[in-house]
Each structure stands twice: as C-alpha cells, then as structure tokens.
Amino acid sequence: MMITGITLNTNILSDEGMWTLDNLPQKNLQEKYDFKITDKWLKNAQLASVRFNDGGSGAFVSNGGLVLTNHHVAMGQLQKMSTKKSDYVKDGFFAKKNSDEKKCPDLELNVLISMENVTSQVVNASKNVETDKAKNEKRKEEIAKIEKTSNDKTRLRSDVVELYDGGEYWLYRYKKYTDVRLVMAPELQAAAFGGDPDNFNYPRFSLDFAFFRVYENNKPIESKNYFKWSKGGAKENELVFVFGHPGSTERQKTMSQILYQKDYSFPEYVKLLKYKLNLFREYANKGKEEKRRAKDYILGMENSLKAIEGELNGLRDKNILNSIEEKETNLKSLVSQNAELKKEFGEIWNRIDSVQKKMIVRHKEFYYRSASNSKLVNIALKIVRYATEIQKPNEKRYEEFRDSNLESLKFRLLSPAPIYLDIEEMMLKNSMELALENLGKEDEFVKLALADEKPNLLAKSLITKTKLQDINLRKELLTGGLEVIQNSKDPLIQWALKIDPILRKDRDWYDDEIESVQTIEGNKLSELKFKAYGKSTYPDATFTLRMSYGTVKGFTDDSTIQIPFKTTYYGLFDRAASFDYAEPFSLSTKTLERKSVINMDTPLNFISTNDITGGNSGSPVINRKGEYVGLIFDGNSFSHVLTYAYTDDKARAVSVHSEGILEALRSIYKMEKLVAEILN
Predict the structure, then answer these.
(1) What class is the 26-108+178-250+539-678 domain?
(2) How much is the pLDDT for 13?
(3) Whose CA is closest to 509, among 644, 655, 358?
(4) Cα–Cα dist 225/112, whole Å
C-alpha cells in the first residue's frame, strides 16, 4: 500500500532500468517511444535468451540450436579446448560443418522457462522467529525446500532469486544444456582489437563474437524460439532492447554500504588484482607456451582491474555520492516525520551501519584467507565440503550443495579441462605469501595453512604430489563419502581437510553476523520503498534475465568532440595504420588477406543508451520487431558509474553491429553455411 499524503520523486531517468520480465516499464515505453510490448514478443525474447552459467549472456539465432555470444565470454572454453599445437584463442576456430563442431568441456547454458513469485512463502517462514541468525536460517531453509520441490517436480534447474534486497523472492526455472559445441570464433586479435588501451573506450573496432550450438541426445536441438536476423541492423536514433543477465549493481545499497566499498573493499581488490596481474605477466614472459596459458587470466584481470578502478573513481566523484546520499536523506526524512514509520523502519540504517563496521575490522581476512584461485585447491575444498554437506538435510546445507545444484556442481568438478601444474603451484605459493604478508604469521588461518612451512615449499609439495588432476580419482572421492576422503593419501585433500574448518567458521560468521542483518534490514528497506514509491522501479541486477531499452546514438565527450553512433571497417584499417600495425593495433592475418573484398562502409560497432553492466556481455540487441541488430560486448569509460546510478549523458553500451558480424563471416572467414543458417 502506498503511503498517502507523501510525494517523492520516483521518476525513472530516460532509458534507465534493468527490468525483470514480470514488471516491465510499459507506461514509459508507451509515452516516450509509442511502443507496447506484446506477450508474444516478450515470450520469444525470454525463450531465445541464454545464460552462460560461467558468466555472460547469449541468444539463439537460428532454429538449429545456434547460439551467439561474445568471444570474451567464450574465452574460457576456448582456452580449455586449446593445446600447445592448437591455440583456438590466438588462431580462432572455424567448423565448416556440424561434424567439425567441438564439444566444450564444462559449459552449462540456461534458458529461463518460467517465473513464480514465492515471496510470501519465504518471508512467512521466518515471521515469528526472534533472532537475526534464526530468521536467516529459516529463510534459507525455506528457499532450499522450494528449490528442491520444484526441481524434483519439473527436473528444471530451480533457483530462488532474491530481488529488491529481500523485498521479493521469485522462483526461476531454467532448462539446462550441457552438451554445447563450439562452432566458430575469430582470432583474438580480431575479437579484441585495440587490447587494453581500447577496453572501455569508444570508438571501438572489435569482432567480439563467437558461435556455439546446443545438442541433446547427440543432435542439435530444434530451437523454436530464436531472434531472426535484421536486414540492415541497428540504425541511428532507433529504439532497441537488450535481453541479458546483468551480474550485479549497487543502486539499492545504503550510504554506509557504498562507503565500505569505496574506502575498504575496492582499494583492497585493486591492490590484489594488480599483484596477480603482474605475476601472470611475468609468467607469460617465460615463453610461447606460458604466454598461451596465461592469456585468459591476463585479459580477465585487465578487464576486471579497469572496471573496478572505473567504479572506484565513480564513487570518488562527489556528484555521484551526493546523489546517492540525497535519495537516502529524503527517505530518512520521510520516516522521521511519521511516528508509525519511525517505529517500524527507524533503525534500518543504524543496524546496517553496525554490520559495516564489523566488516571493516575483518575485511582483509575475506580477501586473504583463501587459496581457491588455484583450480586444484578449489577442487579439493569442494570435494571435502561436499562429503560433509551431503550428510546434512537438504535445507541445512550451503546453497551450492543443495540437491537442486548438485548436478551442476559435479559437472564442473569432473571437467576434463586441462590443469597446468606450474600455474597451480605459482597461484598457491602466492596466495600463501599474500596471506602471510597481509594477515601476519599469528593469524589463525596462516598458522594452520602454513604450519611453519615456507609458502614456496608448501605449494611445491602439495601441487607436485597431488593426483587430483585425475578425473577418476575425483569421481572416487565424490562417491566414496567422508570416510574415504578422510583416509585419502592425497596431500591436497588432507590439506583441504585441515583448512576447511576455519574457512567454514569465517563463512558462518559472515552469514550469522553480516548477511542476516543486511538481509532482514534490506527486506524492511524494500518494504519501506514499496510503500513510498510503489513498484515503479526495478531491483538491482542478480545475474537473472532482464530487459533494458534505449536509443542508438552518439555523445559528446569531455573535450566537446562529437562521437558518432557507429564505426566502420574503414575505421578499423585506419586505426591499425595509424599505429603502424603495432600490437595491440595489428590486424589479424585473415583480415589483412581479405582487405580487398571487405565492404569498408559496413558498420562494425555501435553505441546505445541501454542500461547494462557486467554479465550483459553477449546479450542480444533487438529492435521493435524483435529482430537481432547487435551484440553487447562492452561499455564505454563513462559507463562504470552505472553500477551505482544511471546516466545517459555520456555513458553508452557498446555492441558489435549485426551487419559487421555478417560481413566478417562472408568476406573474412568464408563461413557461407553459417551465414545461410542465420539468414534462413
């Protein structure tokens, strides 16, 4: 129920919003663009959209199970399928027929089938419980029950999603695909032209795309819902929509939560990323094979570092902080002027402030009490924890070990992807060095993990002697149970058994002391906002399917230079020539060889005002007809602030133009069969 007699500014700025499909901005679209979303249009967009469970988005673009996403979303799988002889990241991959398509080792794709509001079930489960800890436990137990019941009944992946910081809970059911095969990916130099200097900048000239195909029973699926390819692609000033899975935003957080990130969390993360990035750059300089193995790590960390530093700079902008604080002050003022509201909601901010102070004291522990950056260590810890958790009732387990998640967990744990022992040893060694340096030798975790051993000697001993790279051993341990694991002679398993109790203790402390308060008070804050604003806004991103809308258009940068809405192949060749074809502005061999046949007028990349964030990579951009016009792959440097507040002044989403993709397939890569399938 809305609060009567109170008027607050609830206007959504222009093209703002990552909207859930149950609450679309029909009024905004009708008033600004004279467009109404129909049920048929929306249902096709929902079922044609794909979530890459290892991070990112995509879409079906043919009725033969063909999925289009970004090259950088595909990068992890490309790296895992590559060998010393076949480097699919560097050289690309091109299947001319279905039998040439290469199966991904551990890629899971999800398609959202249905959504169900389960707020009352979750909230009522903890209604008459007194302590924060008990409330949080009851909430989690009810979520586990809902997911298990749904999974058992439908055999669909069933996730209860928290929206509006606990104001609503929805059950999302997904069709899960695990037989996914690589069809085509350009060379890295074409996909990531301009490298780190051009990352998060515009104009861009990147062919950042890759194609996969979904199989079931060893045959391509018939994807009845897919996006038909547009004739001509995105046009200037055109209304376009993005359907994707944005990872996380912080637009509903309180000032104390934002300031914790600005002053503690982000600076620590930046320091950690820089350290690891330098580590992998040194490793890559050892030789050609080391460079190949490190490429995915380096690109990922460069991207993360630039994104986090951009967000941090945004939070240091007084105008951004002032706008966030003003919204919170207005809401606090509303509460203070109403005795009933003050009694019910008056302590929200104080309680959230109190847990942020607790996090300040322990924030380093949550960064450095870890060694799970090592794949083998992560596998060992997951196996050890699985054996313990599986003995508990489903609703008492950690979320990732609930029945509804076990199939996906085992799929990842038993991945045949290669593991490189030199990288594993390096990562474990340096994790222990960082823990020792930042926490001190008297820290409980450091004392237990190192046991007076030097980090380099510990890492060498554990990694060279473990046999966990053997999938059959992993299967034996997973099926053998806790006793088999406890009696295992594998040194990494024994080390995981030793450190797991303290990692559990830290996680339980966070759940009981921090998460419980933030969830309960966040729930109250959402209830207050619903009363004040109604459901006229959207929740923070949660890596679930969202729709955003916007306009294809350029902008004026800080130097008053007009930036056009699109780039072309002319611009690609000009930028390369302007830097004398030196990396990262060199052109791929195939692109250079086909220069004479490329239509240089063809649009390559374009920008729009769509509201996006990390996780939207690979999202389809569609027009009013629901046709595919582009592929989201980046945001410009002004878009970092979108994590906290929307602006369409200079912030832009960057996409590969649909015509640019077709031109590359035809003229550069000669993938005629793929073009015919797309245009069918």
Answers:
(1) mainly beta
(2) 53
(3) 358
(4) 12
